[in-house]
Design goal:
4 helices, single chain, alpha+beta
């Protein structure tokens, strides 16, 4: 319980961040304005500002631009978008395409 209270209090500090890696529960302090940060525990990189795992595509662009890029290029998001499109428009699109 003490750990939960400590972690909650630390999470309120602007220069404290929890690791973005799924397999790590470490937290660490960063510098104001810092973008790319390395977790001292698991050694993986993350964006200290948007709290996402670091990807080379984030280099030199804002977190908002990176988020837009992820929406347009992430294969998992594209697959989900296609599935939603097919759900709305039905499988007949595929059947028509196969007949051509």
């Amino acid at each position: 319980c003490d750990k939960m209270i400590r972690d909650f209090q630390l999470s309120k500090l602007p220069n404290f961040c929890c690791c973005a890696s799924d397999n790590c529960d470490a937290g660490f302090f960063g510098e104001e304005g810092q973008k790319k940060a390395q977790c001292p525990e698991c050694r993986k990189y993350m964006c200290f500002q948007c709290k996402r795992p670091w990807e080379k595509q984030h280099e030199g662009i804002s977190c908002e631009e990176f988020s837009d890029w992820k929406l347009e290029n992430d294969p998992e998001l594209q697959q989900a978008g296609l599935a939603a499109y097919l759900t709305v428009n039905g499988i007949d699109i595929l059947q028509r395409a196969l007949k051509e």
